[in-house]
Write a structure and sequence with these properties.
Beta-Lactamase; alpha+beta; Alpha-Beta Plaits; 487 residues; five-stranded mixed β-sheet; five-stranded antiparallel β-sheet
């Protein structure tokens, strides 16, 4: 008996349809509420109703239809149960209005309750049908009364009639709406919690999330980490044109990304690298990766969502690695590999335009003696000091490189042999007259130099180097601390 009663009082569950289960719960509450109302009406029939026989007949008819609706819902026929329940109430309420001889706001609220239930349980089309039926019913009664056919009042005792209909209509309206309102409140709370959760994630991540409107060509949303990275306040950032923050050389990079986005496919990733100016006028490198996430009626991309990553440190590291790949780490001047690469390009340019190029190769005299006397650390300091001195004595267009050991090479573009000899002599004298102070010790050195020119040794860099090395050897054999050139 208990199991049977429990099965009758349980709410039907539709395993693969959550919305249907929610509506079934609402119908279940309505059926229980109506059952309680009918039982109260049954016990109060001898107090508030005039025509007791008619009242009992209506109550019994409603109970029969209510149980039929309940049986259908337990069998899983939710729509049929809902339609029977709503139709039953509409017919009974219409009969009550006819028998009470009244059609005012309290009685209209009964039909309103039916329309609300139809909207919650049955959907749009049945709601429209019940609304039209209620309107036609009201118009019919109004026409009858205006034609002189007043309705007879013999159903409810006044003043309980209005109060009873108001209470009943409120119960029927609030019962289906209460779970809906509770769901709305829960959804609002859940949405607020989700928003806080997303905001906390956005605040914690160093990357920048942004949404871009392709039609309006402006950013709809950017996480605050962009402002933190660039050092702007929200007011400063809003008053600044985003294009003005881009590096002039990189503006086309971002413009091309948004141009490509206009024909991008779903799932396609678009990337661009560019620099943006910070509040301290420094340039920050960013990597932008976007995807189309909203399209228009004609399937055209309308909005992009993407991530912007600060890659400034990576770019600085790449630049440093590139520098280290081309620079001698001890002296800070070009290394041998980079010298050969740049000199080859320079000689090709000089040959094309008929300009002379000179090469100076120099070597520190008796450098082994410095290492043996003062140690290799001091010797390294002398090499670094000499490289610094050579850089100071050179033009910005000249190439200065450590060629190996204590040997250095200078490439002098657009310089004839006579001028190159003067440069070499100036270097020799400056080195001889400049003491290199290391750990408080003044160390003096001299250099031997070989000077050649593309007009004398041809256009091939290897030939120039070979000739300069031969001349350097002659300078050393002639007593060192001197310049020897190809006359």
């Amino acid at each position: 008996m208990n199991a049977l009663l429990k099965s009758w009082l349980s709410v039907p569950v539709f395993l693969h349809d959550e919305d249907q289960t929610k509506k079934a719960k609402i119908l279940h509450l309505l059926q229980i509420s109506m059952l309680v109302t009918l039982l109260l009406a049954f016990f109060g029939v001898f107090v508030i109703f005039v025509n007791k026989t008619l009242t009992l007949a209506l109550i019994i008819a409603m109970l029969v239809f209510l149980l039929a609706s309940y049986w259908l819902s337990l069998r899983g026929h939710f729509f049929a149960a809902s339609l029977l329940f709503v139709s039953e109430l509409w017919v009974v309420f219409s009969i009550i209005i006819l028998l009470t001889g009244r059609f005012n706001t309290s009685y209209v609220s009964l039909h309103l309750a039916v329309v609300v239930m139809a909207g919650v349980l049955l959907g749009m089309r049945p709601t429209i049908i019940f609304s039209l039926l209620s309107i036609l019913f009201g118009l019919g009664l109004a026409i009858l009364e205006s034609a002189g056919y007043p309705l007879t009042r013999h159903f409810l005792v006044q003043p309980l009639a209005g109060w009873f209909t108001w209470v009943l209509s409120f119960i029927l309206i609030l019962t289906p709406l209460t779970p809906t309102i509770q769901n709305i409140v829960r959804s609002i709370v859940a949405l607020r919690d989700k928003q806080r959760f997303i905001e906390s994630i956005l605040a914690a991540t160093p990357n920048i999330i942004h949404i871009f409107d392709l039609q309006e060509r402006h950013s709809i949303f950017s996480s605050r980490s962009l402002l933190a990275t660039l050092g702007y306040t929200p007011e400063q950032f809003q008053s600044t044109d985003g294009a003005d923050l881009l590096h002039p050389e990189d503006r086309m990079q971002q413009a091309n990304l948004y141009k490509l986005a206009e024909t991008a496919k779903d799932g396609e990733t678009l990337t661009a690298e560019y620099r943006m100016r910070s509040s301290s006028n420094d340039w920050h490198w960013f990597l932008e990766r976007d995807m189309v996430f909203e399209r228009g009626a004609k399937d055209e991309p309308q909005k992009l969502i993407g991530i912007i990553i600060d890659i400034t440190e990576r770019k600085q590291l790449e630049a440093e690695l590139e520098r280290l790949a081309t620079i001698d780490p001890l002296t800070g001047v070009l290394n041998r590999r980079q010298l050969v690469s740049l000199a080859t390009v320079e000689l090709a340019r000089a040959h094309r335009y008929g300009h002379p190029t000179s090469v100076v190769m120099l070597d520190i005299d008796f450098f082994k003696k410095i290492n043996d006397t003062y140690g290799h650390v001091t010797g390294d300091s002398v090499l670094a000091g000499l490289a610094h001195l050579l850089t100071e004595l050179s033009r910005t267009s000249d190439l200065v490189a450590r060629f190996g050991g204590e040997e250095f090479v200078l490439i002098l573009p657009e310089t004839n042999l006579i001028d190159a000899q003067e440069v070499a002599e100036r270097i020799r004298q400056k080195v001889a007259n400049t003491p290199f102070v290391v750990d408080g010790q003044a160390i003096r050195i001299t250099v031997s130099l070989g000077v050649t020119n593309s007009e004398r040794s041809g256009q091939d860099f290897a030939s120039l180097l070979k000739d300069a090395d031969h001349l350097l050897y002659q300078a050393k054999q002639s007593g060192r601390d001197r310049v020897v050139s190809r006359n």
